Amino acid sequence: MKLMYRIGVIGDSDSICGYAALGLDIFPVSDTSEASQTLKKLCAGDFAIIYITEQMVKGIESEIDRYSSQRIPAIIPIPGAGGSLGIGMDSVRKSVEKAVGSDILFGGK
Amino acid sequence: MATMRVNPTRMELTRLKKRLVTAIRGHKLLKDKRDELMRQFLEIVRQNRVLREKVEKGIEEANRHFVIARSVMQNEMLSAALMLPKQQVSLEVGNKNIMSVNIPVFETKTKTDNPNDIFSYGYAFTTSDLDDAVLALAKVLPDMLALAESEKSAQLLADEIEKTRRRVNALEHVMIPDLQDTIRFITMKLDESERSNLTRLMKVKDMMIEQTIRERQAQNAR
Prior knowledge:
The complex is a heterodimer of chains A (109) and B (222). With 109 residues, chain A is of the alpha/beta class. Chain A is built from five helices and four strands. Chain A is 43% helix and 22% strand. A four-stranded parallel sheet of chain A has the order 2-1-3-4, sandwiched between helices. Chain B is built from three helices and two strands. Chain B has a two-stranded antiparallel ribbon. The model of chain B has no long low-confidence stretch (mean pLDDT 86). Chains A and B meet through strand 1, helix 1, strand 3, strand 4 and helix 5 of A and helix 1, helix 2, strand 1, strand 2 and helix 3 of B.
């Protein structure tokens, strides 16, 4: 019997209320310190994927980086109601830079 | 030229030569591993980029619908409509092995099979824009899951590539040259002592011959 994991969504309530309808667990937070607390709680729990709005990601990158070398959970930035800030693309670029040594895919952008 | 601190003996030389062979073999294997990891990584990252663009566009679309829904409906009504979801998504986490990097594979299970269960509210008191918004989100969800998987894979692979590259560089630029230098040092030292031994023997032989000649001359003189 495999363990069943859940999917969490962290962000301001306006951005994330729709995900509740899909059956994901939503955790509305109002500022980054609350977000980082919630994140810690979820990482300790049985959450395999945690989506977090880019507005909340902004202040707590170091928290998130701590989990990047672990297999679970996957913490994925998503654009919130305010639109995309490009943080998600940035994280892809960062991992490319880490692996290759320089940014070879996103060069001119 | 950095040699290790070792005794220049024949035993040490054999030991170091064995180590050099292992180091070179390890270097070759790690280099192959790095190349293959890199190939897989670039594939995943390209796919990741496409997915992210798709997901961001989808979420934006859903958010646009939400904004309209929020402007038409009262906020309390909207949150009440979404408060009690019918659907529940859970995940099964499998494992995939890429060059000994364990990568999670997510498999979703929904509580109910009916795709219409994402609408957790009666249609009488809600606007159709809310339906559109929820539907748009539901459409992005599979891509979001794929994104989570590929982004995590990219992170894990990037970590492993960095480690492997360090190891390859350490072997290539430190270990192997050091070993080669030390081996050369010991060989030279051994050769040198061989030569000095030979000269000493020749010298001793010369001295012995001289001594005999002197003894013979003394005998003849008597």
